[in-house]
Write a structure and sequence with these properties.
alpha/beta; 6-stranded parallel beta sheet; 3-stranded parallel beta sheet; 12 helices; about 40% helix
Length: about 270
């Protein structure tokens, strides 16, 4: 709201991407410049100026015309302050989830992390910073495609052979696409399936409580994931949310797919 001008790079500015975090009241920029590789997308939202280009190439060109590549001496400090406030605002539970994702990144550097619609992914979308371009992606916003992560992680492993893929999904979301696990086993793909098990659809239940509603249909019982992994012929490990690193290190030493169940049972 305080910005004189907003430069939006490669974003659809979709209401389901932003309003979910702004309680339906995303501020409208005073002046908006949009850069997108898709001309059709540029026409879907009003802007003062649209630039039809690859976002990276456009940004390089813009920076080349600015003094020392930085238009504002305090920009870095202001951005850091905003990130700090965002981290404070999300509360201790989500901050703990973000630390868990940081642990995944730091324990398996250079990996691709594919997320489902699950609480740690929602938290990560707010403040997480991955260590490689294109290495963090999910379908948690928008329509919230439960079950996306398992097949998408398999696709990522096929598309980028030799790169370790971490699939972060909840116990509820995983049940939408459990049969796909056998594809990873059949092709011995280097995917680690991390099941964030909080015994139900906790993100939905939390949202319902915050809206003053009694949670309905959010307590679906999970299967025994140890037996699921065994039935697929897949190695299995169990971990607490604050003790993921050693378990993940052990899984990284194995060939083929591995399942790690993270016990995130509500207190």
């Amino acid at each position: 709201e305080d910005a004189d001008r907003v430069l939006a790079l490669g974003t659809e500015i979709g209401p389901t991407d932003y309003d979910i975090y702004a309680s339906g009241n995303m501020p409208v920029p005073k002046s908006l410049i949009r850069v997108d590789i898709c001309a059709d997308q540029l026409a879907r939202q009003p802007a003062d100026l649209t630039i039809h280009a690859d976002a990276g190439a456009a940004l390089d060109a813009i920076l080349s015309h600015l003094p020392d590549g930085n238009p504002s001496a305090d920009g870095v400090d202001r951005a850091a302050a905003v990130r700090s406030m965002a981290l404070e605002e999300i509360g201790p539970e989500m901050r703990a989830m973000c630390r868990a994702i940081d642990t995944l990144r730091d324990t398996a550097p250079g990996s691709i992390i594919v997320g489902d619609s699950t609480q740690p992914v929602y938290a990560g979308n707010l403040v997480y910073d991955h260590d490689r371009p294109g290495g963090w992606f999910n379908a948690a916003t928008g329509f919230g495609a439960l079950g996306y992560a398992i097949p998408a992680a398999i696709g990522a492993a096929v598309a980028d052979p030799g790169t370790r893929v971490l699939c972060l999904t909840g116990d509820g979301g995983a049940q939408f696409s459990l049969p796909e696990l056998m594809v990873a086993v059949e092709h011995s793909l280097p995917v680690i399936f991390l099941i964030w098990n909080n015994r139900g659809y906790r993100e939905i239940a939390t949202a319902m409580r915050e809206a003053g509603m009694a949670p309905v249909g959010c307590a679906a019982p999970p299967p025994d994931f140890r037996l699921v992994a065994a039935s697929c012929g897949m190695a299995f490990h169990h971990a607490a949310p604050d003790a993921i690193a050693p378990v993940l290190k052990a899984a990284l030493s194995l060939r083929g797919p591995v399942m790690i169940e993270i016990d995130a049972t509500p207190a």
